[in-house]
Design brief:
Strand order of the largest sheet: 7-6-15-17
Number of strands: 26
Structural class: alpha/beta
Strand content: 15-25%
Number of helices: 20
Shape: elongated
Largest sheet: 4 strands, antiparallel
Radius of gyration: 32 Å
Low-confidence stretches: none
CATH architecture of the largest domain: 3-Layer(aba) Sandwich
CATH class of the largest domain: Alpha Beta
CATH superfamily of the largest domain: HUPs
Distance between the termini: 26 Å
Mean pLDDT: 94
Number of domains: 4
CATH topology of the largest domain: Rossmann fold
Length: 708
């Protein structure tokens, strides 16, 4: 057998061949496992990969965690399903595709919607092919026969049915509200898609007759409908309820002074202007004082330029208008002073960094409080466990303070909202198919809502959607066992899946949430292309082997903590791969030509076998508790420092003994220790372990070897 293991392990020669062996076996599909129908299921739903680019190192972390758990429970005799999928990733994909079009000198807004949709579809399908190949290189043992896409026909149908149910239950509604608007991409964004950045801006003190107010946005002066003070601010008691006349940029203006507790007496002078159309707080003040003051006056359009009754300032971008209006205020003598040291938080688009413009726009919203209640209880009761546990408090705090969710997006790519309108402004009709006529006015001209759903609305239903496409799968595999994802999308995705999963099925979509950290470089800096510190997972697997990369991503990295990775760390685990190969090669080379009596184990042999049994028990518990870092470290230290450094060294003289029984006992012990080591290590380092196991047990697969 010695000649069957080459002097060096070549991962590039072995990995593709081994993956083909696994695929041909059919055992990635849990229905094909021996005795499948009698096995208890174990399910992981893969977080759907964005179909707009290549895999990054973050994907490699998630896929490694999910594959370790799938392989472990498959070997433990469970009907293990790891269901893969891809996300159309609406806004994210459109941003990527927009850049492609820009290079071609094109603007999708000026082209036929259906044509652009088809182009993006073809773009995502090509990316999906690439992602499959890349995922396989990472050793993923998912069931490719069940691969789903969030734009599969059945998936869209389920999402539409969910929306209809939410609408019929009074949880989905359309309303005119101030929304977060990105003027660059011209779409609404949810509160979670806003990045707040600290910025130093000028604070302008403007005279309104006898009062002076402070604002960072003088350009929105044209949309003012009132002045407001705190009702307990003694300085302005006498002005409350009065109308104040002042000079304005377009002539004299009159504003009523109202009292509202939302006004901070410590900000500026304690007097603020109320601009309901372009500030969320001001919109809420207007809603409380509708009987006293005028409603929203829109003076900023969707491209971030001044519009409406703004005189000569019409068409100016916001920053241009700010400079121009300030100069005009100086000329007419209403600019009292400017404080250039004002520091505040500014809302920006998470993708392009553009300053968000609050504008009033009819949108579809979900009432979140009724959905959040059961999701909070699910975690408090232990029906859903979050690892690390400290994230449970973060999860609960966010859900307790949740606001209604804007689920409309003004883009072409995504799942179209199944709402229909007639020309007579009747209430919308929510239906999967266009009704023959309006049920209210009996009009026949019905137009579908041009908006699409926020991607997180469809992906928030992912476990239900992915398993409901096949009714039998839903019955067998829902709820799933473990969800693994990065902690940064706890609110974007995890909490929403719990809410919608319970709403649709009465059960949380998973029992355990494992939150892994973000990947950082050796200096603990976040990886980014601009910094030049990004590690390409496919590049390093090509250089050092998939097993080395997987081990480097798991060892030393606890749940919820950021993952420090470097090429040096990956190289270190390549040395471990070499060590495993050399251990195996040594054992194979020392197999006696003829085995003697097989039951002549010494006390020391029995002690060594008892020790690995103890190690395996510890590894089993660590994997069951999702302590993957501890499991990997336990196996690593055993193989390197016990099996290699101690047991094999002590066995060398016995292997050369003239006593056949002694030689046989020494060899059989090492073979048993190697077999158990390969079993323990397989979920983490599947390629090297399967390659060696194939030499140890020709014709059998380590992938379905019994763990026990």
């Amino acid at each position: 057998m010695a000649e069957e293991l080459k002097p060096r392990y070549n991962h590039n020669e072995n990995e593709e061949e081994i993956y083909e062996l696994w695929e041909k076996s059919g055992f990635f599909n849990p229905d094909n496992l021996p005795g499948a129908k009698s096995l208890k299921p174990f399910t992981i739903i893969m977080p759907p990969t964005n179909a707009n680019g290549s895999l990054h190192i973050g994907h490699a972390v998630g896929f490694t965690v999910q594959d370790i758990l799938t392989r472990f429970w498959r070997m433990r005799g469970r009907r293990a399903l790891w269901l893969p999928g891809d996300d159309h990733a609406g806004f994210e994909t459109l941003v990527v595709f927009e850049k492609k079009l820009k290079k071609e000198g094109r603007d999708y807004r000026s082209e036929n919607r259906d044509k652009i949709w088809k182009e993006i579809w073809d773009f995502t399908q090509e990316n999906r092919k690439n992602v499959i190949a890349q995922t396989k290189k990472l050793g993923a043992s998912c069931d490719w026969s069940r691969r789903r896409f969030t734009l599969d026909e059945k998936a869209i149908k389920i999402v539409h049915q969910t929306f209809k149910k939410l609408y019929d239950d009074g949880l989905a509604y359309r309303d005119l509200r101030i929304i977060n608007w990105c003027p660059k991409h011209r779409t609404a964004l949810s509160d979670l898609e806003i990045n707040y950045v600290e910025r130093k801006d000028s604070l302008y003190y403007i005279k309104y007759g006898p009062l002076t107010l402070a604002t960072v946005r003088p350009e929105t002066k044209f949309g003012d409908t009132a002045l407001a003070v705190n009702p307990n601010d003694q300085r302005y008691k006498k002005f409350i309820g009065q109308e104040i006349e002042s000079k304005g940029l377009l002539g004299p203006v009159r504003f009523k002074v109202i009292a509202d507790k939302a006004v901070d007496p410590e900000f500026g002078t304690g007097v603020v202007k109320v601009t309901p159309a372009h500030d969320q707080n001001d919109f809420e003040i207007w809603q409380r004082h509708k009987e006293e003051i005028e409603g929203p006056k829109v003076i900023i359009d969707e491209s971030g330029r001044l519009t409406g009754p703004v005189g000569k300032f019409k068409g100016l971008k916001v920053n241009e208008a700010r400079e121009a209006t300030v100069e005009e205020m100086k000329k007419i003598g209403i600019l009292e002073k400017v404080d250039d040291s004002y520091v505040h938080q500014v809302a920006t688009c998470y993708k392009c960094g553009s300053t968000i413009e609050p504008i009033p726009k009819p949108q579809w919203f979900l009432k979140m409080k009724p959905l959040a209640g059961p999701a909070i209880k699910a975690v408090k009761s232990g029906r859903v466990k979050i690892i690390p546990k400290n994230q449970e408090k973060t999860y609960g705090h966010w859900l307790e303070n949740i606001r209604d969710w804007n689920i409309s997006r003004q883009i072409v790519w995504g799942i179209r909202i199944p709402a229909w309108y007639c020309k007579n402004n009747c209430p919308p009709v929510v239906s999967e198919k266009p009704p023959d006529k309006c049920p209210v006015c009996k009009g026949v001209e019905l137009i579908q809502d041009p908006d699409v759903f926020d991607t997180w609305f469809s992906s928030g239903q992912w476990p239900v959607v992915a398993l409901s496409i096949d009714e039998n799968d839903f019955k067998i595999f829902y709820p799933t066992d473990v969800l693994d994802t990065a902690y940064e999308i706890l609110f974007f995705w995890v909490a929403r899946m719990v809410m919608l999963g319970i709403y649709l099925t009465g059960k949380p979509p998973f029992k355990t949430v494992y939150l892994h950290g973000l990947v950082r470089d050796k200096d603990k800096k976040k990886m980014s292309k601009s910094k030049g510190n990004v590690i390409d997972p496919l590049g390093v697997t090509e250089m050092y082997g998939t097993d080395s990369v997987r081990m480097a991503l798991i060892a030393g990295n606890t749940a919820g903590s950021d993952i420090v990775i470097s090429e040096e760390k990956i190289k270190g685990y390549r040395n471990f791969v070499t060590k495993i190969w050399n251990i195996s090669r040594f054992i194979f080379m020392n197999k006696p030509e003829k085995l003697g009596v097989k039951n002549k184990m010494s006390a020391e042999d029995k002690k060594d076998l008892a020790e690995i049994k103890k190690v395996k028990s510890a590894v089993t518990k660590h994997l069951e508790k999702l302590e993957l870092h501890l499991a990997s470290e336990k196996i690593y230290h055993y193989i390197w420092h016990t099996l290699a450094d101690k047991v094999i060294e002590k066995s060398k003289s016995r292997l050369k003994s003239d006593n056949q029984e002694e030689q046989t006992a020494a060899y059989l012990k090492l073979e048993m220790l190697l077999r158990e080591s390969l079993i323990m290590l397989h979920p983490i380092m599947p390629f090297i372990t399967e390659a060696i196991y194939q030499k140890l047990n020709p014709g059998k697969l380590l992938m379905i070897e019994s763990w026990e």
